[in-house]
Design a protein that fits this description.
By secondary structure, the chain is of the alpha/beta class. It contains 10 helices and 10 strands. The N and C termini lie far apart (41 Å).
């Protein structure tokens, strides 16, 4: 344990999805302290019945729209409108279910052409509707494409009023990090004032997500994360043994102080939504990576 870490630890969540078999959903309900749930945009009428068992077990729940078929910035305005409507329906379906936080994307399907201005416009509409409903909308960085460039993600989030979800595996695998121009821990500096959630695991490749096997390379990044106001880390691993092993490594490394989600669930209270801090609190701190000329 690094003694320079703060005295509080984040909530550590496991993933669940509408497409998961009943056995995995049951396992998540039994083993997770918190859940990041990916809905099915075609069956949002079933969202409440899928989330209520987690809530009945006193689990915290947030949401993650992995909607590969619904590109918010699609170059075809008709398809972009359909994508926006799918996301708006998701926000409405979320109301009253768990924590009012959702992570969204652009560029999930590289075969769908994206128009940047249309994406920012639709993201802003989604954020505005979220505010009306009391829901925080976060934008996630990806491993490839324009969404892998941290300066782009920050610019789009600022323009649309969105918060940011930092996917650590995507950051590690991005050209910016692999080329040495912007190491993954500098993503934290860049995103810090809007950082609302983290997705953490060892690495991502064409076979998917892999667990953390050695915590040592993650210590600098974790130290930076723990200096932010981000209170939610999702362990984004599908296989139970991988999720459990990675959580054990993280818990061994994190401060032993008991955070709200690791109390007896009946005693725990949801984390409050925190305000966006001034972007000028530490001048220049979050402008460390030179963007690519896109």
């Amino acid at each position: 344990m690094n003694s320079s870490y703060p005295t509080s630890s984040p909530t550590l969540a496991f993933t669940a999805a509408a497409a998961d078999p009943a056995s995995r959903l049951h396992w998540v309900g039994e083993q997770a302290d918190a859940v990041e749930f990916s809905p099915d945009p075609n069956h949002l009428d079933r969202l409440a019945e899928m989330i209520r068992p987690f809530l009945a077990q006193h689990r915290f729940v947030r949401f993650h729209t992995r909607y590969f078929e619904h590109e918010l910035g699609h170059a075809d305005p008709a398809l972009a409108d359909l994508a926006l409507e799918a996301h708006l329906r998701t926000l409405r379906a979320m109301v009253g279910l768990g924590e009012p936080v959702v992570t969204v994307h652009t560029g999930l399907d590289p075969n769908q052409p994206v128009q940047e201005s249309r994406f920012v416009e639709n993201l802003a509409r989604l954020v505005a509707h979220g505010k009306d409903l009391g829901i925080v909308v976060c934008l996630e960085n990806l491993r490839f494409g324009p969404s892998s460039e941290p300066a782009n993600v920050l610019r789009w989030a600022e323009r649309a009023g969105a918060m940011i979800t930092l996917d650590v595996g995507h950051a590690l695998g991005s050209e910016a990090a692999r080329g040495g121009r912007c190491p993954a821990e500098r993503f934290v500096d860049l995103f810090a004032d809007r950082l609302f959630e983290v997705h953490i695991y060892g690495r991502e490749d064409d076979q998917g997500h892999h667990p953390i096997e050695d915590i040592a390379p993650f210590r600098p990044l974790m130290a930076k994360l723990l200096q932010t106001e981000c209170v939610w880390w999702t362990i984004e691993l599908q296989r139970p043994e991988h999720a459990l092993a990675t959580r054990a490594l993280l818990l061994d490394e994190l401060d032993p102080a008991v955070p709200p989600s690791h109390l007896n669930p009946r005693e725990a209270e949801p984390h409050p939504v925190f305000p966006i801090r001034s972007r000028f609190a530490v001048p220049g701190q979050n402008r460390l990576c030179s963007p690519l000329n896109l």
